[in-house]
Amino acid sequence: MAGQEQNAQPSGAADYEALRRLGLTEVRREIRAGRYRGQTAGLAPGRLQCNLVVLPERHALDFLRFCQRNPKACPLVGVSDTGDPILRTLGPDIDVRSDLPGYTLYREGRESAQLDDITHLWRDDFVAFALGCSFSFERALVEAGIALRHIEQNKTVPMFRTAIDTVPAGPFSGGLVVSMRPIRKADLERAASISRRYPQAHGGPVHSGTPEAIGIADVMRPDWGDPIEILADETPVFWACGVTPQNALTAARLPLCITHTPGRMLITDVDASAEVPVLSQPHQASEQET
Fold this sequence. Notes:
The protein has about 290 residues and is an alpha+beta fold. Helices cover about 20% and strands about 25% of the residues. It contains 8 helices and 11 strands. The strands form 2 sheets. Strands 1, 2, 3, 4, 5, 10 and 11 form a 7-stranded antiparallel beta sheet that branches. A hairpin with a 2-residue loop joins strand 3 (about 105) and strand 4.
């Protein structure tokens, strides 16, 4: 039962508005200590935020192929060593077992629990995948004067299943998931242009305008996240979403796998605009000059 595997909610929870004023180190400390379990849009601005998938090594190569074949939805920015919960290329001490505000546990393709920490579930054969998130380009949109209502209202961005198919790999398949942001019609071109600069965070939109054209029956009834009002001078704009792998994991029916809870991301040390999402490491010469 899901309730048997849930962690108790912490007391003294940190306030979202207070966290927005803190730097990366302080934000991560609050999340790791269990004092913040909310959505992460707008936190540690300028840092690359990531979706998370954790699964056994025997499925890792097929999942890697799935990401490579669907780069818009699954922009792969980091992979752990087998059994190592530290994503060393994205930060010196990022621990995927505790550094996200929320996790979703799947058993046999079904959601089994919402968890605050997965340390007790970690195994020596686990591999963690970090996938770029559209939260990373939101700072650039805001700095350009493009309003994002879910941040202003401290809501989780709405996410929807679509009729757009992904390219399968091994047991992984399923429809594309998108996130939606209402954008003023006068800002549509700028929003698309700015987001295209962030290919590791889903890049430009996959669709704008009529939701029904991509299989969304009711834009006010998201599959994940919170409904966001669309005003008369706005157009719904849809970006590929890192929840897409959760659809694929459901189809694959793996005995056990773990993802982030939608909207609750891993915040890395990497600059959101970095051309390569790998922190520079001290040079170690492997050969002597002759």
